[in-house]
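User:
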Amino acid sequence: MILCAALVVAPIAVAAAVPLPFTVLQPGISVNTLGSYQGSQVITITGHPTRQTDGQLRMTTIAATLPNYSPPLSEVVGAWGDPNKAVVPRGSVYPSGQSVSQANQVNQQAMQQSQESATTAALSFLGLSPAKVKVDLKLADVGGPSAGLMFTLGIIDELNGNGSGKQGAAGDLTGGSVVAGTGEIDDSGDVGAVGGVALKTKAAARDGATVFLVPQGECSDAKVNTPKGLRLVPVTTLDQAVKSLEALQNGGASVPSC
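Assistant: Predicted structure:
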């Protein structure tokens, strides 16, 4: 019996240490697009007066193990049982054969496109000319397209707020509160799905958010283990996002929820 037990335990011990083709995800940083990050202002606008804002508009991220890292079985099993982590096939995050530098390059290109679309959508929403108003967006060490919606709202808030023309919380899109969210945006202001929302809601709640803007098609994912006190507001367009934030300041009765 002792010999049999040893023969069983040995393969299990070996299997537990064998690297597997998975990527482990967890909540990443969140950044207030109305503030600064790593010493640089996230949004800098020239060619048009800007407002002094209150509250926060936080973009959210997920952190992933590097493409050249293969977690052992013990780590994968532990992550599967942790509501603050997720395990996915490596290929769903990093295309096959992609190096770390290549993955970073792809993510930075997606971030650059996201910033350009956010600027176009925000200025178009406000009826401002991109030839006269210049927007510079900086967010070091963060890639991908999912900050698009929050970039756009940040630009609008700094330029116009909720249209009241007032300074401070009374004129802010946030109403002085902490709003977080995610979503890709295109030039016309349509909000697209991005993935990882069940982890991003946890990053948002951790950093003080009480409202989370989520692409409507990802409501079911966002509702998985939603942190207590975090209101999920589904959006499909920039116009809908702005109107929902304005309505929340008036009680929020008409604001949809996931």
